[in-house]
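Open question from group meeting: does this chain pack into something compact, or does most of it stay loose? Before anyone orders reagents, we agreed to write out a predicted structure and look at it together. Recording both the input and the output here so the notebook holds the full record.
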Amino acid sequence: MSVASRPNGPSPDFHPDLNLLLQCPECKISPPDLVERFSEGDVVCGNCGLVLGDRVVDTRSEWRTFSNDDQGNDDPSRVGDAGNPLLDDNQLDTLIASGAPGSTLGRDLSRTQNRSAHDRKDTALQDAFSRISQMCEAYSLPKMVQDAAKQAFKLSYEDKKLKGKSTESLMAAAIFLACRHSGVARTFREMCALTSVPKKEIGRTFKIMEKLLLELGIKPSHMSSEEYQPLQTTAEDLMRRFCSHLGLSSQITRAAEHIARRTKEEGTLAGRSPTSIAAAAIYFASGLFGNPQTASKIADRAGVSEGTIKTSYKLLWEARDKLVDPEWIKSGKAKMEDAPKV
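Structure tokens returned:
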């Protein structure tokens, strides 16, 4: 008996055939004529109509449509909008359509649902959030501030302590509070110009809102509850922005910050607002370093009066020996005789 010899070369690797072939058991056509009907989730034979599979997952691409693209009211998107954590619940409500043309029942049901109190509250919040975003973008505030302002507004919106306050004052106070918590200082005067809400009204609403959020445990993320104290805007917080608006160099900006810091340590302008201190320090530093700015120009950028700047500057000039770094004069970068005259 002869034995078949093995072919030359390595033996082929054997593995199971994982290719599954779905074929109609009735027609047994090869290749099979199968139709995927995603609307019903079935796989059917295109020849005899026999259902060969059900609950088929639609693997086609998900599409987004816009109002001007949706020509036949045929929205291919199978999901709703992304959930908004700032709104109540999970926004998984049932939508009642108006029904076929001429259907009064469907139209009445849809209208009744749209009048629900829950929908009205969410609509009001969404409108307020949209306005907060617009105002923050007008002042180039980062998204971190926008989100914090929206959270503060929502928590304060229906609180009894703020009942009677206008929506505009709540939004202004929420943005101001978010700026402080995020380390992006803004003045009450700037909030007043942004929102058209009186300065005193913003201040009153802000104090109530800050106390309310502290009771709820809302505070800057880097502070514990024991460490947290109501935040105060300092002259140094405002300095870089004011100097940037005036087109001043980093050297003058650092000098103005130094003068403001020394002013606080010495108590030279104790009791004056951070805005007034920052404006006077810029007026002093810009003259020292040979790029003098007029009091009127600084007043326009800082939002204080020209007289306030000059009055504060007189006090700085009297304490100049304690405020000016001697190294500035020794290096020749600054000259005391170039400082504004009192």
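Observations to bring back to the group:
The chain is about 45% helix and 5% strand.
The CA atoms of residues 208 and 309 lie 31 Å apart.
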